Amino acid sequence: MGASGSGKTTLLNCIATVLKPTSGKIILRGKDVSCFHGGALSEYRGKEIGYLFQEFELLDNLTAKENITLPLALHGVSAKKAESDIRTLASIFDINEVLNKFPSQMSGGQKQRVAAARALISNPDIVLADEPTGALDSKNSKILMDKLSAINREQHKTIMMVTHDANAASYCSRILFIQDGCIFHELRRSIQTESTAAFYDRIVAVMAQLGGGSANVL
Predict the structure, then answer these.
(1) Are residues 160 and 15 in contact, defined by beta-carbon separation less than 8 angstroms?
(2) 167, 13 contact by CB (below 8 A)
(3) What is the distance between the alpha carbons of residues 196 and 59, in angstroms, rounded to a whole number?
(4) Which of 22, 36, 93, 104 could potentially form a cystine with 40 if both were Cys, beta carbons 3.0 to 4.6 Å apart?
(5) Which value, to the nearest 10 degrees, does the dihedral of the CA atoms of residues 190, 151, 35, 74 take?
């Protein structure tokens, strides 16, 4: 979390290897991902990470099912081979009824849930989510966050999310607040003992401090 321009999306893009860090390292399982090239880079992008965008980024001329399986096609995996995974994700995200529809025939919430299924179809260990609720109303934001929270809890997927929304952030277990490219503060939630509402209150308190400048570091 942090103000616009603080470096949140830049950080996600560095982890996704869209951008190369000007300094420092990004270490995953003991390896610096920014040094990956060729097959190692393709393997990392195709299987290790999934990306969930704010504006869905679905292809208009493909159905929901085709959009979901697109990452597999790029890596030579047939949709038929992934049929079981498609059915599972469609059930999790309640999108069975739109699998054969085009994006223009879907609501915003349906589009984002299709995009979430696409991010997970290659079974990545990490999902990078850039303002995933930014284009959704409060009802669809809650639905999406409930689904992502269940994925994190039940399938043990790491979800690294950029958000301005304290409601969305309250679903997380750890929050890093960024100011001008540096870590300003960190919050951790004990899932067993702290409610989402209580964690939300702590988030809002830090956001107020963050808005007041670095002189108010907690």
Answers:
(1) yes
(2) no
(3) 35
(4) 36
(5) -170
Mean pLDDT confidence for 115-140: 91
Q: What is the dihedral of CA 47, 49, 52, 57, to 10 degrees?
A: -50
Burial of 203 (0-12, 13-18, 19+ CB in 10 A): buried
The pTM (predicted TM-score) of the whole model is: 0.87
Rounded to 5 degrees, φ, ψ at 28 are -130, 120
Distance between CA atoms of 110 and 97, rounded to whole angstroms?
10
Assess contact for 119 and 148: CB atoms under 8 A: no
Amino acid at 120: L
Closest residue by Cα to residue 136 from 105, 159, 157, 167 = 167
Measure Cα distances from 127 to 8, 17, 117, 160 in Å: 15, 14, 11, 6
pLDDT digits (tens, 9 = 90+) for 66-125: 999 988 877 777 767 788 888 999 999 999 999 999 999 999 999 999 999 999 998 898
Are 147 and 93 in contact by the 8 Å Cβ rule? The answer is yes
Pairing of strands 31-32, 27-28: antiparallel
Of 47, 132, 147, 145, give the one whose Cα is nearest residue 95.
Answer: 147
Best CA proximity match to 160, nearest among 178, 142, 143: 178
User: Crossing angle, helix 83-92 and helix 138-155, to 10 degrees?
Assistant: 130
Length of the chain: 218
